[in-house]
Amino acid sequence: MPTFDRRLLYHFDWTVFSLALALCGVGVLSVVSATWGGSRHALDPLVVRQLVWVGAGAALMIGAALLDYRVLASYAYPFYGLAVAMLIVVAVAGHSTGGSRRWINLGVFNLEPSEIAKLAVVLVMVRYLREDPPKGGWGPRHLVIPALLLAVPVALVLKQPDLGTGLILMLITTTLIFVSGLNWRVMAVLGLAAMLAAPAAWRFMKPYQRERLVSFINPQSDPLGSGYHIIQSEIAIGSGGKWGKGFLKGTQARLNFLPEQTTDFIFAAYAEEFGYIGTMTLLGLYAALIARGIWIARHSRDRFGALLAVGFTGVIFWQVAINIGMATGMLPVVGITLPLVSYGGSSLIAMMIAMGVMISVNMRRYLF
Fold this sequence. Notes:
Blueprint: H1 14-34, H2 45-66, H3 72-93, E1 95-97, E2 100-105, E3 110-111, H4 113-129, H5 144-158, H6 163-181, H7 184-204, H8 207-217, H9 228-239, H10 266-299, H11 303-327, H12 345-363
Antiparallel strand pairs: 1-2, 2-3
Helix pairs in contact: 1-2, 1-10, 1-12, 2-12, 3-4, 3-5, 4-5, 4-6, 4-11, 4-12, 5-6, 6-11, 9-10, 10-11, 10-12, 11-12
């Protein structure tokens, strides 16, 4: 294993580090607001846990940054195997909440292996795609192994059921294959196949998932049922106006009209209190982080580091796009959290580790 070079400290990427912590800060404020009960003497337990996770995540982000990212190639397949094993444990003996079996109860906290699976899929795909593609790009026979590596965690995640994470895993893999050099003919065939397969996917959806798609098209078809989430989210966002109602003054979350206000719909709770200006500020933080990730990928000295940066930036991009699309009624509700902002230890810590790896990639481009 390469030894640590003290020169790395001079090239620490404070941009990624600061943006990640800023987004975590927005998340803590949003969780405080969503759980506020009017007492000025005690924080809600959810807030305390989120603060602990932010601290743990920051420490792990620094640890990942100090680790030479190149050693991750050796652990890609073992880490992938561990993630799959945890997903199997969830399927057999996982903790069930709200009709979904997604967590492993560790006593201190509930671990959500699907968040670990996102990191594992990025790492194993980058490990496979790190070699330069053949002339003309990756062909169908080159995609058999990535397809199999993707199919296992996606099948286990969909069994929970967790359509949102399954979708994210597929989008991450597609992004990495496309960026790494996909043959344009194969790209066209896969796109056509996806369009033709979409109607068939309807047969494999669970009833509540079908109801969500119908409500996406017309939320008023079931305003007190499957359309309730979208309607209340749109009301919260719209009521924020330009400047918002003010911190701790939102009513949709406070009066429990807005469901999942600390996780899936935390964007709506934030928009109600901070309005258009606050929303644009939040989107600006995400845009800056995504742009920095792309910059790191373009300036990486090796293909492995570049693809790692692309993969983890893709996780942020796709989750932000889908979560905000859900909250604004532009996409169906599929259960995706807002990265680094939504309440949840597994998601927050996994994303901060990913940001640490991106910092590592950028730091080490000065040394070789």
